[in-house]
Amino acid sequence: MKILRTLNSENLQRPVSRLRPGSDAKKVFQGEIFSVYQWQQKLFTGEFATFEMLRRADTVTILPVTTTGKIILTDQEQPGYPAFLDLPGGVLDSGETPLAAAQRELAEEVGLLSDDWSLWFVEQASGKIDWANFIFVARQCRFAAQQRPDAGEKIQVLEKDWSAFEAVLRSEKFRNRGVALQYLRMSPAEQANFRQELFA
C-alpha cells in the first residue's frame, strides 16, 4: 500500500477542527499567535455552558531525504524552551500555500532545496485548537540555499541514517509527537513500504 500521496488539491485540503464551534462563537481575545473563541454549548442535560477553542495559523513540517540518503533533523534552541530535536518546518505566511511554505521553510531553516515533493499526512494537532499541520516528504534534497533561521531560533543541522532517525523518533527530546506517532503506529509492513518510498 502506498504511504506517500501525490500533491493535488484533494490531498492538500485542510482538515476541519475536531471541536466544532457553535454558530454564536465570538472572538474574545486576539494574541500574537492565538485567537480565543467562546460560545454557549448545549449539554446533554439541556443546560448550557461556555465552551472555548483557540485558532492559530497553520504549519508545515518537512521530512527531508538528501541525495546521499540521509535524513535531515534540526537541533534547536528557542527562547523559553529547553533544547529539542525536530524536523524542519514553520508557519504558513498569509496567502501562502502549504507546499510553498514547506519549500520556503526547508531553504530558510536548513539550506536545502528539492524538486521531489510528496505529502505524507495532514493532521489537526489538537482537540481544542483549530490548527492544521501539513507533513511533507522532500526527496533528493541538496544543500544549495543560504540558511536563514528566524531571530528566535538557533538551529544546528543534523544528518542521520535511518536507524539513527528511528531512535530519535522514540526520544523524549524529539518535539514532533505527531510525526513520531504516525510512523510508530504503522505495522512493520507499512514501515517497510514507507522506507522504500522514501529512498526510491
Automatic annotation (TrEMBL):
PROSITE patterns linked: NUDIX, NUDIX_BOX
- Offer a single GO CC term for the protein: cytosol
Q: Which residues form a coiled coil?
A: none
Q: Which GO terms describe its molecular function?
A: hydrolase activity
UniProt xrefs under SUPFAM superfamilies: Nudix
Provide one Gene Ontology biological process annotation: ribose phosphate metabolic process
Q: Which Gene3D superfamilies match?
A: Nucleoside Triphosphate Pyrophosphohydrolase
Keywords recorded for this protein, A-Z: Hydrolase
What does this protein need as cofactor?
Answer: Mg(2+)
Report domain Nudix hydrolase positions. Answer: 55-185
Q: Does the keyword Hydrolase apply?
A: yes
Matching entries from PANTHER family are given as: NUDIX HYDROLASE DOMAIN-CONTAINING PROTEIN (PTHR11839:SF18), UDP/ADP-SUGAR PYROPHOSPHATASE (PTHR11839)
This protein's name: Nudix hydrolase domain-containing protein
Task: Give the organism the record lists.
Answer: bioreactor metagenome
